[in-house]
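HUMAN: Can I see a protein plus its fold?

ASSISTANT:
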Amino acid sequence: MGIGVQGVSHRRALFIALTFALFQTALPAAGIWAGSALGPQLGDYAGYVGFAALFALGVLTVALALREGKSGFELGRGPGLVLAAAGVSLDSLAVGFSLALVGFPPVTTIAALGISALVMTWAGLLFGRQIGSRLEAWAELAAGGVLALTGLVLFLHKLLG
């Protein structure tokens, strides 16, 4: 939703959703491949790093929105898109470690994660776009705020849960 608030076309939303789905399938696959031996040691840290990255991206977006002039850094394009997708998906690495330990069928599970990520990301982008059209000038600030708040809430939930 945070990226969608900045305004994205249907085509751009689909591309962003595909990018997020790619990360949401690649990282659990990497976790499974790494094996169960590393899962207990690295699994918890991956989530914290992902949430911190999401928070940092949100703060960066807010800071750049407050700065005069355009920065050229967009979360829906280029390096910004890769950073956003990786930050949101990093905790999926821990999921892959867990899947290796539990014995879930990897191909089916990873396909389900990718399809879910694709659909939910696309829906969130389009919903965010609707919100963004109403926010207009505040869209970039709102996008950064949503990302930072999401990272903070997920971090606190993991820390306290």
Remarks:
- The chain has a mean pLDDT of 77.
- The chain has one domain: 4-160.
- Residues 4-160 form one domain.
